[in-house]
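Private note to self, pasted from the team thread so I don't lose it. Backbone tokens:
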């Protein structure tokens, strides 16, 4: 017959130390996830991309009068026509993006 050895229970200090370590690990993980989520929200540009697509459509189908300027959520948008093309420029805080559109005559 197997003789079972008696295992002593953990002391209060060991339990508190383990609890503190677990709390520290969860706190670091929480801060990391929070940082990742905030960066994702800050880089979300779907609103300006949708507005640019809408302006592209309106420009190609000649539904807006050119030259056209607009301020959309901090972005400066400008549409300027050339012979059979139009340039759609949108800028924010030094970042400038340009799209060339070919117009139907």
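Design output:
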């Amino acid at each position: 017959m197997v003789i079972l050895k008696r295992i002593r229970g953990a002391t209060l200090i060991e339990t508190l130390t383990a609890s503190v370590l677990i709390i520290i690990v969860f706190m670091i993980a929480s801060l990391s996830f929070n940082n990742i989520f905030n960066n994702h929200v800050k880089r979300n540009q779907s609103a300006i991309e949708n507005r640019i697509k809408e302006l592209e459509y309106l420009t190609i189908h000649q539904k807006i009068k050119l030259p056209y300027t607009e301020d959309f959520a901090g972005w400066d948008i400008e549409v300027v026509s050339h012979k059979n093309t139009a340039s759609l420029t949108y800028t924010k805080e030094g970042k400038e993006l340009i799209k060339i559109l070919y117009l139907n005559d």
